């Protein structure tokens, strides 16, 4: 792989002069200028940007540059359009990208015209060892507007020592390093985008003395933004995470409405909870099918060699079901009922109707309400968990899972009100418990679903019997796994309910008089 | 990923020129290509202006396969990398013998590179030894340049017998005429003899042209500095035939019919 170093462009640099000190070893050869259309790609949640990487496409050529000033440069190409990194041709770029982007699709973020002025740097054998190139990005809309410029020194594979020497020579000639990729920044900004602006992690900034209804609205507005951001991509079926994030935003919205009691008028709360519950219900089937289809490779890996091929009818069936569920989901999103709900909800958040008498918690400082709810939720979990015996009944574990989720959401909503150093360990413990409860529930739901599908699957004859046998094997394997995970429950719960954790919760969230 | 080896147990038959030009043409067609210069004379390395040096000598082929990867250099052409030769390669056959399973050592050494390249071309020294057996095991297709002379034909016959002896799928040993001078009656006659004697000869003929020798002066692949020359066109045709051959299934039946030569 190649390595590269970025330098700032100040408009006065002279390549010949800068490398004059090294003239004995290197020769410089000016190459023809090239102009291409440059497109920056990233996932919707900016996974590459978060890893300090920039993926540039020029035609079918792709290059992954370090956003920090220097590092490895990985090149590759795409067969046709770019979508999932896993669909790229085998090679270093795929190896690099696929684990980062995982199930998220790559989307074009911004485009510009790129003019490259390259200089080839040759060693004493007249062999190219590096390229020093001026990259200038120009606006596509306003062709005379130069957005940004910078230099890239790229060492060819196997010539790192030479790259180091050349970088040092430029440094000594007064060239400034380019720690920021100004081309990336300018092209993204010109497209009206903000790198890193979307994340599936909430970051809500509240102040402790804020009125509870104001604080709740801040949270709900952010969740509404998440719904609005994801919705168009669900309809285009770009990747399955759009629906997932959309559903989480709805669940969090319902959680705010359900858990922050007496903050908004009861009638409105009742109405919106019901409506959002219906939206969530309409998306259940599509999400379930997405998850089963994502698990296809894992399911196949669970089957003995001789049965793998007979599982195909199951996935054919699931894919057909998914097509129907997707059409229903899109119809739901485009329905007048949905439009009306979103309009009503936005109106509600921008101007909450007054009620007489006002709900009793509306003007209460949010810190008080947060403490009260968090403490109550923790105690509820401990009480519920204590009732679960060594048998660990599935439905009791399911109820506990729901309680844990409610607590987790509260911790996310109110994280800005408490010191991270104290809250984070509690969140980690909760996550561990949730991980186990989540796995048990997933496995239970999968088992039940596969058994239902086995009844509905249109199969017949010897092959059909083999398909049902394969499904039976899967159900058995999932059940084994569920038992194994259940074995981990008691320890994780004891950890979470331990006197030390209970004390930490009491200290953090115990009743205190607010300062406001 | 495909591994092609240019091989002949005779020297000076146009192996390296073919390896370099085919590698260049493959890379131009978009295939990520690695040319491995396994010949201690390091001619391919010279053509690409790279220093003939392998850090760790032959170690990368025998013990530490990661060492091979660290020695790879980009050439001046897109999609084309080179594993340079080193004078130490003169001992490669002896060193391969020290490996745990000597006959498969080369194949194993190339394994870690499979995911990085669509094509690996091996340019090899003229020898029938453990090295040749390694080559046979590593390559999906062995390309043999054949000068139409009685001695050349005889040595090709020996190679096919050797392949049979070491139980190699001889259907994957394919020859093409190289350095052909059609003005020579002997060349014309021997080409006819070879055509009746060996199956699966490539149709393309690489002529004896001084342009090919100019590669040593220009230190570039021929299609890079003389793309429209007759010799460049011949290499392009050969590459097209190789691509066709690679897409054909090679059956054991084809082996049996050829092994009788």
Structural description of this entry:
The complex is a heterodimer of chains A (516) and B (261). With 516 residues, chain A is α+β, with helices and mostly antiparallel strands. Chain A contains 16 helices and nine strands. An eight-stranded antiparallel β-barrel of chain A has the order 1-6-5-4-3-7-8-9. In chain A, strand 7 and strand 8 form a beta hairpin. The longest helix of chain A has 37 residues, at 420-456. Chain B has 13 helices and eight strands. Chain B has an eight-stranded mixed β-sheet, sandwiched between helices. In chain B, helix 1 packs across helix 12. Chain B is globular, with a radius of gyration of 17 Å. The two termini of chain B are 30 Å apart. Mean pLDDT of chain B is 89; it is low at 251-261. The interface between A and B is medium-sized, with 15 and 16 residues.
| % residues in beta strands of chain B | 5-15%
What's the oligomerization state? heterodimer
Unreliable sequence segments of chain A: none
Helix content of chain B: 40-55%
User: Which outline of chain B best applies?
Assistant: globular
Distance between the termini of chain B: 30 Å
Sheet of most strands of chain B: 8 strands, mixed
Topology diagram in text:
The complex is a heterodimer of chains A (516) and B (261).
Chain A: E1 2-8, H1 15-18, E2 27-30, E3 34-42, H2 47-50, E4 53-58, E5 61-66, E6 70-77, H3 92-101, E7 107-122, E8 128-138, E9 146-155, H4 160-172, H5 182-190, H6 212-236, H7 241-259, H8 266-294, H9 296-302, H10 312-334, H11 336-350, H12 366-387, H13 394-413, H14 420-456, H15 461-497, H16 499-509
Antiparallel strand pairs in A: 1-6, 1-9, 2-7, 3-4, 3-7, 4-5, 5-6, 7-8, 8-9
Helix pairs in contact in A: 6-7, 7-8, 8-10, 12-13, 12-16, 13-14, 14-15
Chain B: E1 2-6, H1 15-28, E2 33-37, H2 43-47, H3 59-62, H4 65-70, E3 73-74, E4 80-83, H5 92-96, H6 105-110, E5 119-123, H7 130-138, E6 141-146, H8 150-165, E7 173-180, H9 185-197, E8 205-207, H10 210-218, H11 222-225, H12 230-247, H13 252-259
Helix pairs in contact in B: 1-12
């Amino acid at each position: 792989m190649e390595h590269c170093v970025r330098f700032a462009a100040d408009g006065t640099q002279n390549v010949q002069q800068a490398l004059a000190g090294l003239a004995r070893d290197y020769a410089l050869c000016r190459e023809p200028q090239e102009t291409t259309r440059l497109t920056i790609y990233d996932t919707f949640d900016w996974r590459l940007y978060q890893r300090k990487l920039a993926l540039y496409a020029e035609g079918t050529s792709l290059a992954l540059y370090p956003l920090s000033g220097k590092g490895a440069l990985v090149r590759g190409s795409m067969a046709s359009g770019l979508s999932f990194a896993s669909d790229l041709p085998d090679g270093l770029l795929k190896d690099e990208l696929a684990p980062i982007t995982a199930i998220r699709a790559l989307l074009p973020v911004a485009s510009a015209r790129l003019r490259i002025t390259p200089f080839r740097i040759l060693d004493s054998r007249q062999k190219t060892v590096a390229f020093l190139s001026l990259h200038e990005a120009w606006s596509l809309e306003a062709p005379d507007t130069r957005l940004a410029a910078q230099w890239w020194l790229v060492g060819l594979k196997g010539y790192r020592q030479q790259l180091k020497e050349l970088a040092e020579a430029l440094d000594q000639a007064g060239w400034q390093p380019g720690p920021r990729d100004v081309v990336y920044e300018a092209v993204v900004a010109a497209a009206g985008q903000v790198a890193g602006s979307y994340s599936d992690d909430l970051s809500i900034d509240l102040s402790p003395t804020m009125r509870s209804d104001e604080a709740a609205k801040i949270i709900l507005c952010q969740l509404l933004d998440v719904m609005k951001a994801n919705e168009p991509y669900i309809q285009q079926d770009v990747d399955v995470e759009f629906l997932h994030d959309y559903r989480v935003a709805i669940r969090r919205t319902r959680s705010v409405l359900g858990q922050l009691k007496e903050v908004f008028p009861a009638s409105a709360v009742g109405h919106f909870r019901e409506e959002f519950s219906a939206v969530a219900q309409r998306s259940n089937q599509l999400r379930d099918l997405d998850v089963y289809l994502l698990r296809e490779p894992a399911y196949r890996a669970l089957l003995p060699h001789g049965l793998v091929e007979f599982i195909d009818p199951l996935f054919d069936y699931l894919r057909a079901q998914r097509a129907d569920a997707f059409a229903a989901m899109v119809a739901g999103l485009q329905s007048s009922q949905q439009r009306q709900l979103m309009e009503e909800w936005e109106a509600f958040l921008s101007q909450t109707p007054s009620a007489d008498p006002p709900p009793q918690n509306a003007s209460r400082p949010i810190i008080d309400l947060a403490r009260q709810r968090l403490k109550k939720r923790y105690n509820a979990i401990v009480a519920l968990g204590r009732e679960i015996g060594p048998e660990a009944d599935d439905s009791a574990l399911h109820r506990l899972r729901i309680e844990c989720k409610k607590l987790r959401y509260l911790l996310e909503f109110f994280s800005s009100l408490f010191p991270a150093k104290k809250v984070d360990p509690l969140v980690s413990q909760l996550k561990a418990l949730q991980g186990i409860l989540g796995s048990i529930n997933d496995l239970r739901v999968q088992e039940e679903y596969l058994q239902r599908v086995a009844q509905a699957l249109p199969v017949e004859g010897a092959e059909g019997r083999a398909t049902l046998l394969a499904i039976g094997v899967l159900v058995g394997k999932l059940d084994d796994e569920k038992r194994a995970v259940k074995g981990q429950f008691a320890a994780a719960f004891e950890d979470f309910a331990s006197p030390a954790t209970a004390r930490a919760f009491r200290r953090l969230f115990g009743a205190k008089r607010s300062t406001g | 990923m495909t591994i092609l080896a240019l091989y002949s147990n005779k020297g000076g038959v146009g192996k390296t020129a073919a390896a370099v030009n085919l590698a260049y043409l493959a890379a131009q067609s978009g295939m990520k290509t690695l040319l491995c210069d396994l010949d201690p004379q390091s001619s391919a390395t010279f053509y690409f202006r790279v220093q003939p040096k392998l850090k760790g000598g032959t170690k990368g082929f025998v013990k530490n396969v990661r060492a091979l990867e660290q020695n790879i250099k980009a050439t001046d052409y897109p999609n084309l990398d080179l594993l340079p030769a080193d004078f130490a390669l003169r001992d490669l056959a002896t060193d391969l013998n020290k490996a745990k399973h000597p006959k498969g050592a080369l194949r194993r050494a190339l394994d870690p590179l499979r995911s990085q390249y669509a094509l690996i071309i091996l340019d090899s020294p003229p020898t029938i030894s453990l090295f040749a057996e390694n080559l046979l095991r590593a390559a999906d297709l062995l390309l043999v340049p054949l000068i139409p002379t009685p001695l050349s034909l005889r040595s090709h016959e020996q190679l096919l017998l050797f392949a049979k002896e070491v139980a190699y799928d001889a259907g994957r040993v394919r020859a093409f005429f190289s350095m052909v001078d059609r003005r020579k009656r002997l060349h014309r006659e021997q080409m006819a003899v070879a055509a009746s004697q060996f199956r699966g000869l490539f149709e393309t003929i690489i002529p004896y042209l001084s342009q090919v020798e100019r590669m040593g002066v220009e230190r570039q692949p021929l299609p890079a500095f003389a793309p429209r020359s007759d010799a460049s066109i011949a290499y392009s045709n050969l590459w097209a035939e190789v691509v066709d051959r690679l897409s054909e299934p090679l059956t054991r039946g084809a082996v049996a019919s050829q092994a009788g030569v």
